[in-house]
Amino acid sequence: MTMQRGRFAGQDRDAVYRAIADRRDVRRGFLADPLPNELLNRLLAAAHSAPSVGLMQPTRFVVIRDLTVRQAVHAAFLEANEQALASYTGERRDQYSSLKLEGILEAPQNLCILSDPHSARGHKLGRQTMPETAIYSTVCAIQNLWLAARVEGVGVGWVSILHPARLREILHIPAAVIPVAYLCLGYVENFGSEPELERFGWERRVPLQSVVYYDCYRDAHAEEQEP
Ligand SMILES: Cc1cc2nc3c(=O)[nH]c(=O)nc-3n(C[C@H](O)[C@H](O)[C@H](O)COP(=O)(O)O)c2cc1C
């Protein structure tokens, strides 16, 4: 059999799939040691090398180590989380209030990832029909960082329970730039073998075959959609 050109050899290939399978959203168990600059730069470089529409590279990074800044973001989280809790009733509400949904103060560094969708870079290639692809490009960068962090033993937790307007105030983000992700980052002792939300009974993963269609979309689960 001829070797396919460009294909990774066995162990290298397995390592990529393992990083994908073993990546977790981490909200607890962060160690106090800050990440060395070299390591943080490797993670940022992984993010920065992500694909981007028209090669516009719209992603911007704010590294946050200052405790007072993290405390301000944490206060914003508590406020938003209180509002989120109020939208649930009964058992769901009890369950929601028992979840740990951020590690802003425990993780020694936080990272706000932004997108500058009006950057002239890329000369609008691909964005004339789909302007939102600038933000999609930033999401690709986030995923690269998340996977690179996993292989470095660094936990990453994404916190979206924040009003973007509060983040803008705290981090001085101009109106034209979009806050896409607020991440908590740090060394962790171990990674869970399954998503925490699954472990605590909030939601379960669906099997791949239930979301793959061939030749056209067939919405077999339309009745399950939220209004
Ligand atoms: C866009 C996005 C926003 C998220 N926001 C939060 C959040 O605010 N709080 C939280 O605890 N987890 C958050 N998560 C993590 C998800 O809950 C997690 O990815 C999912 O439960 C699957 O678990 P896993 O990442 O460990 O596989 C977010 C994930 C994504 C992709």
**Whole-number average pLDDT?**
95
Could you give the order of strands across the largest sheet? 1-2-4-3
What are the low-pLDDT stretches, counting only 5+ consecutive residues below 50?
Answer: none
The distinct bound ligands, ions and cofactors come out as: flavin mononucleotide
Number of strands: 4
Q: Determine the strand fraction and express it as a percent band.
A: 5-15%
Structural class based on helices, strands and sheet pairing: alpha+beta
Radius of gyration: 19 Å
SS element count, helices: 7
Q: Per the principal axes of the C-alpha atoms, what is the gross shape?
A: globular
How would a crystallographer describe the biggest sheet? 4 strands, antiparallel
Distance between the termini: 53 Å
The helix content is: 25-40%
Task: Sum up the structure in keywords.
227 residues, alpha+beta, globular, binds flavin mononucleotide, 12% strand
Report a brief summary of the structure.
This protein is of the alpha+beta class and 227 residues long. The protein has helices spanning 10-22, 37-48, 67-86, 90-98, 133-151, 164-171, 196-199; strands spanning 59-64, 109-115, 154-158, 178-187. Strands 1-2-4-3 form a four-stranded antiparallel beta sheet, with helices on both faces.
Task: Explain what the structure shows.
The protein is α+β, with helices and mostly antiparallel strands. Helix content is 37%, strand content 12%. It has seven helices and four strands; from the N terminus they run ααβααβαβαβα. The chain has helices at 10-22, 37-48, 67-86, 90-98, 133-151, 164-171, 196-199, and strands at 59-64, 109-115, 154-158, 178-187. It has a four-stranded antiparallel beta sheet with strand order 1-2-4-3, with helices on both faces. α2 runs antiparallel to α5 (133-151). The radius of gyration is 19 Å and the shape is globular. The termini are far apart. The model has no long low-confidence stretch (mean pLDDT 95).
